[in-house]
Amino acid sequence: MTRLSAAREVLAAGLLVAALGAVTDQVRGVQREATGFERFTVRSAGGRAVTFHFAPRDSGAAAALARTAAAFRPAPIDDADLPADTFDIVVAPSEAAFGELTGGRAPDWGLAVAFPDLSRIVLRSPRLTGQTGADPATVLRHELGHLYLDVAAGGSDAVPRWFNEGFAALYAEEWRWVSPIRLAWGRLTGSLTPLGRLDEAFPDAPAPELAYIQSMAAVRGLRQRGGDEGIRILLARVRAGASFDAALRATYGMTLGQFYADWEAELGREYGWAVALTDERGLWVLLAVLVAFGYLLRRRGVRREIDRLRRREDASLGDPVDHSLGVEEWERYWEHEDDAWQGEDRDASL
Question: Could you tell me if residue 96 is inside a domain?
């Protein structure tokens, strides 16, 4: 791509940002014009309008992503009870355009960014992320999860950050985050961040994976307690004005602090050495332990053998006798006239 075309895409992205911003407070169903970008609108499984904005060369990718958006709606979400806002999906055609569209807020490892207050998602074109191995459809479902959660809870700030990220990952079926082994090693090595601290700020790059795994597992734990219906009721209570702690108490019969304590206990039961040892690292640790144990056994055996031989030798020699030279023998030895005692007459006798 030439510098001129790249500059045009950045300019088009800036114009699109301005166009979208100009209609933020208007009816979401209206068609939007954006110089340099094409657009079309599809309906989600719940009837919600989802509008895609994309450069002409990303029309194929946009069509594929539109099929994902049309088929996706998190199970606890009932669109019939929610505001019918339109979701805008912007496919950034270049890295420069992605930076312009996100205001530079996306980390280097981020493939997409959701702006719940604007009901908008900006994601890198699949042309730009082909080498990452990430599935564009899964990435889109994750970001749509953030938008749906924002509408269902009455705002993203109404729920803890771990719940926000865990909800999006769980209902996007992000199997790349499903890693009991990583969670077990994180617990055993003390590298897990407590759920309460994840609410302050999600860990930054370069290693946010463990926090996503932890968040997804925590939300899955809530779903195991009451199913998708339990989470729907929880969000409805939050949207009605209850705090997350109060909604959690009314839905599951426990406070947020109790959930954190139960979660820590559950980690100890389900993600211990039995899980960690199924990993390659665990096998090496087990092998090292076995080698060390074998060495100690061998060393103990050698010591026993040495002690046995010493006892045997002592037994063959009988009672110990003092064979050292006394004072008289030493004096006699050093008498010059007693050559025989000193052994000097050995040659003469031969």
Answer: yes
